Amino acid sequence: MMNKRYAVISDVHGNNFALEAVLSDISKRKINRIFNLGDSLYGPLNPSITADILMDHNITHIQGNCDRMLYERTGNPSSAILSVKNKLSTAHINWLSLLPKTLIVDDLLLCHGTPDSDEIYLLEDMSIEGGILKDSASIMGTLQNNVQNVIVCGHSHIPRVVYLPNDKLVVNPGSVGLPAYLDELPIPHKMVSGSPHAKYTILEKMDNEWLVEQISVPYDWTSAANLALQNNRQDWFRALTSGML
Fold it and tell me: How confident is the model over 48-64, as pLDDT tens digits?
């Protein structure tokens, strides 16, 4: 019987340069199915081009909090949100709005943050210096209502594989398009992956066990960073060229 091989991408953030490199790498690896965990378009790069690529490929998508921000109607959207929305078509926005927030496939639960929230980090507690891995009891408490043995999440942009005492496996593929960032919520913090590579994960089920392969793909991050700089995002320039802040 053929092993199941899944590729999992997340947090593309409008970085078509990184996305194209990752999809090219995936195409060489005999993958049965590609999953995208959301936050696909938000950012100062090429959201429209990125949307077209994602919609044209055979990928199963869920949505993240930054996707939701682009279709939700709020009274006072930020200039960054308006800038991205102005580059997207109605078809792009409608596509985002129809994506599910979570998905169950076989023994996999796919979510962006946690199964119940697209804004909460499943694996990390926040400090001003970044994410600290939560203790097992805390993670298991968040997942207590979920029967799946493998939970795949994004949101933090940090690749992680966490094996819990109840035999559940939690995997974060890291970010395709943004290897470091600053955020104000839940407290001011930074998240850094340490390299500018585009990151994704392969999950392969072998004899009822899951092999997890975390992959870092080189791409033309200089072009991506220069585009961010043209759009007055020095923070993105630093993140894209180094994976640091």
Answer: 999 999 999 999 999 99
Confirm if 191 and 131 have CB atoms less than 8 A apart.
yes
Q: Is 123 exposed, middle or buried (0-12, 13-18, 19+ CB in 10 A)?
A: buried
Helices (H) and strands (E) in the chain, counts: 8, 14
Please give the DSSP secondary-structure letter assigned to residue 156: S
Structure tokens at 178: 């943004």
Contact residues for 201 (Cβ-Cβ < 8 A; gap 6+): 7, 8, 152, 159, 171, 172, 173, 174, 212, 213, 214, 215
Q: How many CA atoms lie within 13 A of 152 on its CB side?
A: 32
CB-hemisphere CA count at 13 Å for 171? 28
Q: Are strands 33-36 and 60-61 parallel, antiparallel or unpaired?
A: parallel
Give residue 208's pLDDT band: very low, low, confident or very high (50, 70, 90).
Answer: confident
Return the structure tokens found at 19.
């996305």
SS3 state of residue 2: coil
Structure tokens at 110: 């796919």
Q: Which of 99, 189, 103 is nearest to 146 (CA)?
A: 103
Q: How confident is the model at residue 2 (pLDDT cuts 50, 70, 90)?
A: low
Has residue 128 got a pLDDT over 90?
no
Angle at 16 (CA atoms; ends 15, 22), nearest 5 degrees: 100
Neighbours of 101 (CB within 10 A): 19
Reference 17, options 221, 200, 181, 199; nearest CA is: 221
- Token look-up 């995936």 returns 26
What six digits make up the tokens of 47? 């959201």
Which of 181, 125, 174, 134 lies closest to 153 in space, CA to CA? 174
